[in-house]
Amino acid sequence: MNSFNASFRYGSRLANRQIRLLHVKSGPHPDSIEIELSSSSLDSETQYCALSYVWRDANATKEVLWDGQLIRIREGLFGALGQHLATEPEQLLWADALCINQQDDEEKTAQVKMMGQIYRAAVTTVVWLGSECEGDARAVRLLVEVWQKFPTE
């Protein structure tokens, strides 16, 4: 789905137990996003947030700035990155679509096998279901009420 030359962007394949992490920044224009990638070992003490998000329609895309060039990413990921930028601008982020070279089957296979470890090593995991819709706040309040009435302990 990504419309860029992945080998140019990613450079060399990741070493054993290495992952890529995103630094998300405000872009040069209002409502624009810029990303940078770095690599880190799962054995390091690097703190990052793992992101799980709704993929949605592959044709619904937005642009982000990466290494000075615009690339297209799915709208769901764009929304999640924007929310992350608004709430945790300094925290590194792991998101599968950008942190795994989707054009390199060998790397993709190795990274997918490590996904459980990637999520466990994260300081936190954020699940992005999309922007708030009418009735969402009421639904969340209802879930909290149910949780409070039926504690798990």
From TrEMBL:
<dbReference type="InterPro" id="IPR010730">
    <property type="entry name" value="HET"/>
</dbReference>
<feature type="domain" description="Heterokaryon incompatibility">
    <location>
        <begin position="48"/>
        <end position="141"/>
    </location>
</feature>
<protein>
    <recommendedName>
        <fullName>Heterokaryon incompatibility domain-containing protein</fullName>
    </recommendedName>
</protein>
<dbReference type="InterPro" id="IPR052895">
    <property type="entry name" value="HetReg/Transcr_Mod"/>
</dbReference>
<dbReference type="Pfam" id="PF06985">
    <property type="entry name" value="HET"/>
</dbReference>
